[in-house]
Amino acid sequence: MKHSVGKTLTAGTANTVLLVPAGYKAIVYVLFISNLDGNNKTTTAYWQHAHDATHKIYIIDNYPMSAHSFIQFSSGEVVFQAGDSLIVTPEAGASQTVIVTFDLIKEASVPYIADN
Fold first, then answer.
1. Cβ–Cβ contacts within 10 Å for residue 36, how many?
2. Domain count for the chain
């Protein structure tokens, strides 16, 4: 089932925008970040893998956003596994919002079949 989540971000803090629940995967279609500030501010966004806290895939890293601008990623798909998360961190003092659109899919359970 498709979902969109919108969030007003806390400046200077790593904001978890999406956390895929156990037993599911998420296909992310859109990431939209808006700088509502009257000044230029930077933004960082990354995909945090559940299997390794040090495994971060940066989408943008300290990306300079002009005053009253936005950045949108919508030309592809990224598959997040259970426990993976999407983190967005605006610069301290920034006023930013984010929208992420994704499809949450229940993973089929695969029964274990013991060798005979």
1. 16
2. 1
Give residue-wise pLDDT tens across range 48-63.
Answer: 999 998 999 999 999 9
Nearest to 43 by CA among 73, 20, 78: 73
pLDDT per position as a tens digit, 81-108: 999 999 999 999 999 999 999 999 999 8
Domain span at residue 100? 2-106
Please report whether residue 115 resides in a domain. no
Q: Are 5 and 17 in contact (CB under 8 A)?
A: yes
Give the Å distances, CA to CA, from 74 to 30, 40, 101, 113: 5, 23, 9, 40
Does residue 68 fall inside a structural domain? yes
Domain membership flag for residue 111:
no
User: Has residue 116 been placed in a domain?
Assistant: no
The residue behind tokens 């806390």 is 10
This prediction has a pTM of 0.90
